[in-house]
Amino acid sequence: MAAHAVTFYSFKKFESTMSPIFIYEDKAILPLTKELRQLINITLSGGRFILIHPHYSLIREAMRLDIIEEERLDDLEIVAGQYEQGEMIQFSREDLLFLYSLLEITCRLFVCEIGDDLKRLAIECGDTNEEEFTRVRNFFLHQAESFLKITQEALSDWEEFTSLQERIEQLNILA
Asked: Which of 28, 68, 85, 175 could link 96 by a cystine bridge, Cβ 3.0 to 4.6 Å?
């Protein structure tokens, strides 16, 4: 198998603390920083919330469009759990595409009425208070914006990514 060129993408222009992404063949490799770990963990929690609350129209449509899949969530959780902070985390094409889609949906959860319900539930359970929820949500949205932008650049030539973006656009129209 012939070696392919490594493409380097930097988060610097987005003024983020995220690390660069290296694309090699069908894999994405990036340093697992504290910020990336937090972003992944919040995204995985958002995915778990999605699976137990399918009554929201946004979530129903995302599932109908095959943007969210329970098996992929389990797989991503296993992959992310294998790496320690400071190590180079490696995502397969499928894992990275799923992380991207889950991140998109989780961001939407935080900025619509579902986010209000999520905040209320978290406060009622005693997991957080309103100030902490707001702090975590704002951190997440800022980091997610950077990660989504750089991922869009990094994956723009992947056919599967183009297909995923089309389904996300359909979700924008439907929900």
From this structure: 28
